[in-house]
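G., the chain you wanted modeled:
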Amino acid sequence: MDKEKILAKSRAENKNKDMYELEVAKLANSVAVTVMLVIAAVFFIVQIAAGGGLNYGIWALVFGSDMALRWVRAVKLRSRLDLVLAIFYTVVVAVLAGYHIYSLIS
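Predicted structure as tokens:
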């Protein structure tokens, strides 16, 4: 195969997406989730230290992003591990959201 045929085949397989851009997007997503987790942990600790009680809503948001990520991976990649983790995170988010809503109502 000549160079042009190889490039055309690669473009068709990658749907004209640059592999470097995909890797950067993956890294950016990972960093964003980590930063969100750190910020949520700081807020959680400060709220407890200030006597504000527990805020389960923050953790529902944090785990919600990972839940969404796992659901997308489970559906698109047909990954059994991601499916199990997606279900687990869905339960965790539901419980945390329930606690948060209950604490707001009561």
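The chain has one domain: 17-105.

Shout if anything looks off.
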